[in-house]
Amino acid sequence: MFQGRLLHIYAIIFLDVVVGSIIGPVLPQFVRGHANPQLWLALGTALFLGVQLISAPLLGKLSDGYGRKPIFRLSSVGTFLADCLLLPVRLGSQLANRFSDGLTNGLYATVRSAITDISPKEALFRNLGIEGAIISLGFVIGPAIAGLLITTLDLTDPVEQARYVVMMAVGLSGLNVLLSFFLRETHPNPGGVSRVELKAAIVHSLNVSTILRRLRQKNSEHPGLLNLVLTQVALTAAVGYYNYFVAYVSLGPLQMDTKDISYFFMYFGGLSVAISYGFYGFLADRINQRRAIFWFALVGIPVLAAYGVVGTSRLWLYVIITIDCLTYSLIQGLIEGLMAQKTTDTDRGEIFGLNQAMQGLASFGTTLVFGLLSIIDLRLPFAWFAACLGVVAWLVQQDEYQGETDVTD
Q1: Is the pLDDT of residue 407 over 50?
Q2: Residue 307: inside a domain, yes or no?
Q3: Is 397 exposed, middle or buried (0-12, 13-18, 19+ CB in 10 A)?
Q4: How many domains does the chain have?
Q5: 28-33 own/partner pairs: CB under 8 Å, 24+ apart
Q6: Which of 298, 247, 292 is nearest to 129 (CA)?
Q7: Which of 164, 304, 309 is nearest to 238 (CA)?
Q8: pLDDT confidence of residue 204
């Protein structure tokens, strides 16, 4: 029974990522003709992630009170409607899509809560790690579908390419609405949310400054939680290059077109799937997770910096992305597994929602930073990303040191 629900959740995640990644290769078409197009792409990303500061904690709280299934439904419908806004292909459509999709994008806080709901403790790292592999697989299939569609229909006009890809995204997001409506609940007998609690949740969601205070309160109940959240915040800032990459490879020295970007993400996603499945399926729960995070981050710092000096060499780009998949790309699932162990049935959605809000804040901030740096030089943002990964290594080292001190005391 649990296995069936787990597979159903994985299917929803997979389609959601495919829908998001399928439009990645054509996003430059929405900003072409505008001054500083990389800045407009960054602004769209910042808008999408910034709105989650408000929506994610509220949706997480609601999933604890009313169950995971209603949030899955709301998020899938929100994505479908947001994708419809991408027609016609122009800058205003992209910005409207980013704002609309961000409002209901509480899906991943709810996903992690649902997986944790039905996962035995011994399978928690594996199941959350497989979630990461599924996301990577979606990054393969999305660009592959875009490239296949463009090739099969022999589309040569960039705007026409974007229009057809968006229509495909709308169709797939509609399918995900159906899958979400058939999902069985993973959080049985939720206690509901009183009118007073709901009002407080809305007020808190509208006041971003309360997020850290609420996390401190949760940290008093689950010691070590806040440090894990801050570590994930730093990691989110570091992997902000995912959102910058399309602009970098299309507008920078590499000058990659839609098909080139599709093939690159196919390789990136395919390799990530294979490595993530092997790592989380056989190793993640048998190692010291905090120490692994430290070494992955430390080795990953020069790897991230190397993207900025790849020049016009696509061979070196593929070499760097291969090392990427073997190092810091594996950190996310380890942090999520450690964090899931510090939740309970009554506050799981709220904690993951607060965490997603903090990730949204980090993504918003890092997007503004790399957007401004890219105006000076398209290579500069990778120095910022590498520095943020250094913070990940430092934080997890401090956490491990504190844990050893507590045991000694």
Answers
A1: no
A2: yes
A3: middle
A4: 1
A5: 28/246, 28/247, 28/250, 28/251, 29/89, 29/158, 29/159, 29/161, 29/162, 30/86, 30/89, 30/90, 30/91, 30/93, 30/94, 30/162, 31/91, 31/94, 32/158
A6: 292
A7: 304
A8: 67
Determine the Cα–Cα distance for residues 376 and 267; give it in Å rounded to an integer: 30
Centre a 10 Å sphere on the Cβ of residue 384 and count the other Cβ atoms it contains.
Answer: 22
Domain span holding position 377: 2-185+201-402
Residue 63 scores a pLDDT above 90: no
pLDDT at 409 over 50: no
pLDDT of residue 406: 43
Give the three-state DSSP class for 183. Answer: coil
Look at residue 14 and tell me if it is in a domain: yes
CATH number at residue 241: 1.20.1250.20
Banded pLDDT at 131 (limits 50, 70, 90): confident
Range from 176-180, 228-232, 360-364, 379-383 carrying the lowest mean pLDDT? 360-364
d(CA 132, CA 136): 6
Does a structural domain hold residue 195?
Answer: no
Cα 85 from Cα 93, distance rounded (Å):
6
Q: Please report the pLDDT score of residue 208 as a whole number.
A: 65
Tell me the pTM.
Answer: 0.76
407 occurs within a structural domain:
no
